[in-house]
Amino acid sequence: MSEQDMPGGELLVILRHAPHGSSWLREGLDAALVAAAFERRVSLLFMGEGVTALLDGQQAGALEQKGTAPTLAMLEMYDIDALLVEDEAMRRLGLGEDDLMLPVRRVGGEAIPGLLAAHQLVLNF
Amino acid sequence: MLLHILNRSPLDSRVPEQALISMGPDDRLLLIEDGVQGALPALAVHFDGLEGRLFALREDLASRGLLSRCDKRVRLVDVADFVTLTEEAERTVSWY
Amino acid sequence: MRYAILLLGAPYSHQAAHSALRFTRALVERGHEVAGVFFYHDGVQNAARLAAPPQDEPHLVDGWTALHAEHGVPLQVCIAAALRRGLLDEREASRHGKSGHSVAPPFELTGLGQLVDLGLRCDRLVAFGP
Question: Which CATH entry fits the domain spanning C2-128: 3.40.50.700, 3.40.1260.10, 3.40.50.1000, 3.30.470.30?
Answer without folding.
Answer: 3.40.1260.10
